[in-house]
């Protein structure tokens, strides 16, 4: 792997993404995991001059409710945004796999960021450039499948491959039964699941509702019909206690409740106590405080979730609707305890950022030594 000089912090939007949080509050330490960090990639837009600051890695500390700025993702030209990539972790490293830059290219590049040393390096590239694909880690190997390999998005691909982090090598896998893109990848019971997504089959509804399951031992795919049940691709799926967990689809990331999958019945059903019609539980004043100011309506612009122990963390971002020249983004974290019998939901103090902070990918969790 080749090393990359990490971008200077002086060029990063530190004022927009502070190293120290605007607020610090004590959280419930019940079952807390102080060694975990939740990482996500954001872009920023300053409405006054319509300028984008692209692809900043941020870290959320679940113990202190603090967002901190890590660094810029290297190799992204300013005012260009990388989308459709996968972000996963192996050990103390984050891997940014593939993706596309609008009207420029579909990428095969794979970057590695060590959260301890703060160093970037380039890894072996994907065999097939792709974006909007399924990706997950199984037995410390990175599996990818499906996606789109062209910018026009006319057709997806059915190919799959696996990356060995020790050998720095991608190996092709058998193709899935159909092309899939905008699909979700997750690991469960040592197998790689590719769930839902748009397909190129002549019976799209049947395949969009299905899943493909790759078994590394047999090196074969199995086709599971009706596993997703909706003609709309899922937004994100995680695993807690060997159970698949979802909160919505790609059109509506939050559907008012958390759902889990019953393998015997082949059904998704709500988790007890998870119904929360609106993740927005506060109003924001025009100057960022709630003292003597009229509140502004808020519009959720991003939502991703992470699983740590029995907890589900929902990282939400809200745009303050109003004068575009003075737009700000409110960041709020909601936590749901899947093991509690009551009062499962907690909502933590919001943090305000200047400009519009947009989520570029789903988050990943890194456990620090």
UniProtKB/TrEMBL annotation:
It comes from the Eukaryota. Residues 78-286 form the FKB95-like N-terminal Kelch domain. It holds the Pfam family Kelch_FKB95. This is FKB95-like N-terminal Kelch domain-containing protein. It comes from Deinandra increscens subsp. villosa.
């Amino acid at each position: 792997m080749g090393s990359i000089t990490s971008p200077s912090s002086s060029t990063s939007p530190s004022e927009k993404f502070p190293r120290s949080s605007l607020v610090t509050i004590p959280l419930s330490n019940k079952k807390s995991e102080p060694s975990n960090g939740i990482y996500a990639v954001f872009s920023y837009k300053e409405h006054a001059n319509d300028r984008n600051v692209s692809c900043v890695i941020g870290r959320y500390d679940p113990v202190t409710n603090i967002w901190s700025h890590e660094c810029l993702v290297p190799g992204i030209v300013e005012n260009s945004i990388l989308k459709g990539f996968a972000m996963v972790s192996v050990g103390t490293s984050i891997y940014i796999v593939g993706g596309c830059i609008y009207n420029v290219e579909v990428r095969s590049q794979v970057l590695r960021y060590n959260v301890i040393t703060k160093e970037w390096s380039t890894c072996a590239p994907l065999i097939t450039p792709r974006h909007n694909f399924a990706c997950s880690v199984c037995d410390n190997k990175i599996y990818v499948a499906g996606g789109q390999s062209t910018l026009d998005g006319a057709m997806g691909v059915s190919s799959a491959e696996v990356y060995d982090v020790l050998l720095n090598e991608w190996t092709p896998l058998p193709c899935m039964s159909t092309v899939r893109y905008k699909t979700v990848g997750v690991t469960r019971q040592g197998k790689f699941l590719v769930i839902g997504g748009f397909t190129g089959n002549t019976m799209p509804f049947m395949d969009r509702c299905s899943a493909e399951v790759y078994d590394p031992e047999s090196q074969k795919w199995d086709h599971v019909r009706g596993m997703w049940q909706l003609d709309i691709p899922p937004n994100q799926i995680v695993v807690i206690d060997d159970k698949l967990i979802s909160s919505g689809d790609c059109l509506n990331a939050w559907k008012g409740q958390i759902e889990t999958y019953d393998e015997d019945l082949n059904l998704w059903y709500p988790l007890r106590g998870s119904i929360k019609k609106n993740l927005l539980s506060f109003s924001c004043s025009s100057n960022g405080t709630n003292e003597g100011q009229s509140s502004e309506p808020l519009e959720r612009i991003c939502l991703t979730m992470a699983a740590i122990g029995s907890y589900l963390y929902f990282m939400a971002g809200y745009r303050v609707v109003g004068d575009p020249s003075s737009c700000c983004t409110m960041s709020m974290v909601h936590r749901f305890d899947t093991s509690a019998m009551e009062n499962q939901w907690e909502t933590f103090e919001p943090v305000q950022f200047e400009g519009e902070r947009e989520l570029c990918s789903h988050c990943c969790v890194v456990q620090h030594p």
